[in-house]
Amino acid sequence: MRLMSTLTRIGLIFLAGAMITVLGTAELWDEEPDKEVTTLDLANTMLDDWALPLLILGVLMAMAMMGAAYLVRDERRENLEWEQRGEDA
């Protein structure tokens, strides 16, 4: 378990370094955009080019929310009985 945690941290540090290196290059930011980006362009790009990744991301987020709701619920016997009786009893 400790090895997996260490490997995950090293991988995240490597990923952050790679992202900073790629995004920090001067060639990426030197050129001027051809036209101004509008919200319509953003919507078209998201729905045309990124439809499948957004769908997969939505499914993963829904699974995470369902898992969190399952983990939060409390099923101890005294709590279930208290919910059935109510606060007054």
Structure description:
The protein has two domains: 1-30; 38-89. Helices cover 76% and strands 0% of the residues. It is built from five helices and no strands. The mean pLDDT is 85.
Provide the descriptors you would attach to this structure in a database record.
89 residues, mainly alpha, 2 domains
**Amount of beta strand:** under 5%
Number of strands: 0
Overall 3D shape: flat
In angstroms, what separates the terminal alpha carbons? Answer: 46 Å
Rounded Rg: 24 Å
Q: Percent range for helical residues? A: over 70%
| Averaged pLDDT | 85
The helix-strand sequence is: HHHHH
Largest sheet: none
Name the structural class. Answer: mainly alpha
Low-confidence stretches: none
| Count of helical regions | 5
Oligomer: single chain
Number of domains: 2
Outline the secondary-structure elements.
Blueprint (H helix, E strand, L loop, with lengths): L1 H22 L2 H5 L8 H10 L2 H22 L4 H9 L4
